[in-house]
Amino acid sequence: MRFNHFHSYMSLLSNRLVIFVLVVILLPSCFVFGQDDNKLSDEPDEAAVDVASVQEMSRVFRAAANKVIPATLKIISHQIVSEPSNRPTTNLPEPDIRRFGDSTGTGVMIHPRGIIATNRHVINNGKEIEVELADGRRYNVTKFRDDEFTDLAVLWIKTDEDLPFARFGNSDRVNIGDWVLAIGNPFDLDLSVSTGIISARGRSNAKLKSGDFLQTDASINPGNSGGPLINVKGEVIGINTMIISQSGVNQGIGFAMPSNTVYWVLKQLVEKGKVERGWLGATTRPVTSSVAKRLGVQPKVGVMVIYSVPSSPAARSGLRPDDIIITIDNEPISTLVDYHRLEERAEPNKQHNVKIIRDGQERTLAITFVVRPPEAKSDPSQIAGAEIPRYVDKEAGISVLELPANVSEKLKLGGVKGMLIFDVLSGGTGEGAGLAKGMLIVKVDGKPTPDRDSFIRARQTGSIEEGIRFEYLIPNSKVPQAIILKK
Questions:
Q1: Residue 254 is part of a domain; what is its CATH number?
Q2: Is 8 a catalytic residue?
């Protein structure tokens, strides 16, 4: 009996508790709704606004992609490879047994009469190259021309009708954060579109001899190479070229050659059959904070001259080490990428105005650039040859190599032997003191350093903590200069 009373009591308590909870939850809203001065909101639902914005963005992306998809095509490069023969040796002629291996990539039509832009590595020296349009039509490539420096190529197909083509946009107007779309054939999946933003500009890469890349996080994978990177207006602002990845597939860092560079290169390939680049013949380095402090200039403004190749326009014009090049034809220079771009696009055999800072004073030199010679070497360490063993001085932050007398003559160092600085560690003690690639170290703390062993002995007797004196020569100079390395 007591149990029944208890059960009834608990049920009543439970019901009251439920009612209390409901009152607590509903009372505030009832109170607010019941106020005379409170009205239903006229503001649009935020979720509805977001949906509308997303739908509008989708419409923009769709319109941009639909402009360029018809002009984007698959490139099939047929590789003809000789098969090894397992037949026993006879005096009979060996049959010509071959097999075809295909590699695929992407290209984009840039002229209605069958002119196509792509990457050089996509065609991959194919013996036969075909292209397949978005509508399935196939054409044989009749000829192509390529440029090793930028990994770009232009292809021709024969057609009697106008074909869909894409238009170039101005890559100089592209900014970090801009939306972009990458179109291509990743992993042989036809005409795949991915979206992303421009992550960075002016990227360089050691794999290519020339680099001024746009970086994007739009998905780029094997098979995308040579395809267009477009803006939201459906203009080609880059040609997708490579990725940085530890897995071999997209990890959010892709590179595209900017459209302005693509246009400049392909125009020359079409009109001249080759690319003629301007050449000044000066080795330069960035103006870091330590360089700026030593020379009394602003950091990240211009590039510093380290070395002028003998008989080059730079040498003939009198450019000296420590000169700061700040403009070429009034175009400002902030990075090495800026400098190399302006140098190569300076019309050869024509005079150009090069503004420099020397000893704190601005001056303008009128210099006639020339066509870049084949395998032109502006870096003394390149001329010396990478096959010569190097010694890495970690404490000084430099790597050096023993310079043979015949190479010293070639570098206009008067046959003097010494240790040539091959590389300088960014942010290291040597860079901070002003050491640079191409300097020939002839003494360390007064001890001659004609070879590797003498350099090592001289370094072991001194201390960078207390300060070490490096004496060096630069090309065309017979008087050694000195720098003190000290942490």
A1: 2.40.10.10
A2: no
Could you tell me if 367 and 396 lie in one domain? no
Q: What is the pLDDT of residues 180-237, one digit of tens each?
A: 999 999 998 889 999 999 999 988 765 555 568 999 999 999 899 999 999 999 999 9
CA–CA separation, 361 vs 18, rounded Å?
A: 86
Give the CATH number for residue 332.
2.30.42.10
Find out whether 110 and 267 touch, Cβ atoms under 8 Å: no
How much of the chain, in percent, has pLDDT values that exceed 90?
51
Place of tokens 């330590």: 290
Q: Do 254 and 325 reside in the same domain of the chain?
A: no
Give the total residue count for the chain.
487
What band does 402 get if pLDDT is binned at 50, 70 and 90?
A: confident
Let me know whether 421 and 359 are in one domain.
no
CB hemisphere CA count around 417 (13 angstroms): 12
| Alpha-carbon span 58 to 308, nearest angstrom | 53
**What is the three-class DSSP state of 468?**
strand
* pLDDT interval class at 486 (50, 70, 90): confident
In a domain, 418, yes or no: yes
One of 77, 194, 210, 225 is an active-site residue; which one?
A: 225
Please give the distance of CA 205 from its chain centroid, rounded to a whole number. Answer: 5
Please name the residue ranges forming H helices in 346-428: 380-384, 405-410
151 is catalytic: yes
Count how many Cα atoms sit within 13 Å of the Cα of residue 426 in the half-sphere of its side chain.
Answer: 4
CA–CA distance, 375 with 370 (Å, rounded to integer):
14
- Which amino acid would we find at residue 106? T
Q: Is 225 a catalytic residue?
A: yes
Best mean pLDDT range from 54-63, 64-73, 287-296, 433-442? 64-73
Residue tagged 């037949």 (tokens):
87
Catalytic residue among 77, 121, 210, 323, which? 121
Model pTM score: 0.71
| From 147, 151, 217, 338, active-site residue | 151
Neighbouring CB atoms inside 10 A of 480's CB total 16
